[in-house]
Design goal:
Number of helices: 7
Helix content: over 70%
Radius of gyration: 16 Å
Length: 155
């Protein structure tokens, strides 16, 4: 599916969600200390929150019964439940790490979540349009987090 197949509200709000991702490395590059560190820390925290949101989206799909003929009981499998919770746990752990390692952990988690979601589309438990949105948003998030590792915390 193409990005144009994504429902407009999801596409618009999804891309607006990249603004904090873009602002954090920009602030980490341009601002003096201690604001530079605060901008980088804000980006790290935002990444963890958005990773948690990605997991919650899968909990919502299961609650709605997506991929199981509208049956939430059948849709909530162990695999889906773990996909819902693991991003949150990884995001939380990333916040407890040395910041640069936390950023690298978030990058790996965003990429891994996208890879699992690709399999979810193939299995019919994730809408194809969602994946069309997630690719550019994942690339934007990963690029931002990588820039933060370079400029914000000095990788």
């Amino acid at each position: 599916m193409a990005l144009s197949d994504v429902p407009p509200p999801a596409r618009q709000i999804g891309f607006l969600g990249l603004i904090p991702f873009a602002a954090a490395p920009l602030g980490a590059f341009l601002l003096p200390e201690p604001e530079r560190f605060l901008a980088a820390q804000a980006g790290l925290c935002y990444g963890a929150v958005i990773l948690t949101f990605l997991g919650a989206a899968h909990w919502g799909l299961a609650l709605a019964g997506y991929g199981a003929e509208g049956s939430p009981e059948r849709a909530m499998t162990h695999q889906r439940a773990w996909l819902s919770v693991v991003p949150c746990l990884v995001g939380w752990i990333a916040l407890l790490m040395v910041p640069t390692v936390g950023l690298l952990t978030l990058i790996a988690a965003f990429l891994a979540t996208y890879a699992v979601e690709r399999r979810g589309v193939e299995a019919g438990v994730v809408p194809a349009w969602y994946l069309s949105l997630r690719l550019p948003l994942t690339l934007g998030a990963v690029a931002s987090l990588a820039l933060l590792a370079l400029f914000g915390f000095g990788l």
